[in-house]
Amino acid sequence: MLITVKVLLGISLTDFTKDQVLNAYCEIMQNKVKAYCNIDTIPVPLQDVVAEMVAVLYRKQYGSGDSTQMVTVQAGAIKKETVGDHT
After folding, report:
1. Of 74, 37, 67, 71, residue with least CA distance to 53
2. Distance between CA 74 and CA 84 in Å, rounded?
């Protein structure tokens, strides 16, 4: 699962600096899914879903997985957003 998360975040597979955090998030999300679904193990089809959840959680906490990219947010900067057919 760690490899899938790294690919989703654009983190090099040889970059081990974030592995401890990513592994912790993987464990947290797996436990949450198991508790919510009342199951003991994560079935294969749900493993990708858990990996996506970990990537979203990581991005919320740390921004992009690429450490060279910086995100700056200014209050009131977004004037319009389009998602699919909705604006």
Report:
1. 37
2. 24
Separation between Cα atoms, residue 74 and residue 81, nearest integer Å: 15
**Mean local confidence (pLDDT), 31-56:** 93
Measured CA to CA in angstroms, residue 55 lies from 10, 35, 41, 44, 65 at distances of 10, 20, 20, 18, 9
**Amino acid 70: pLDDT:** 37
Mean pLDDT of 79-87: 66
Residue appearing with tokens 């991005």:
59
The length of the chain in residues reads 87
How far apart, in whole angstroms, are the C-alpha atoms of residue 20 and residue 70?
22
Phi and psi at residue 43, to the nearest 5°: -70, 155
Q: Which residues contact 76 (CB under 8 A, 6 or more apart)?
A: none
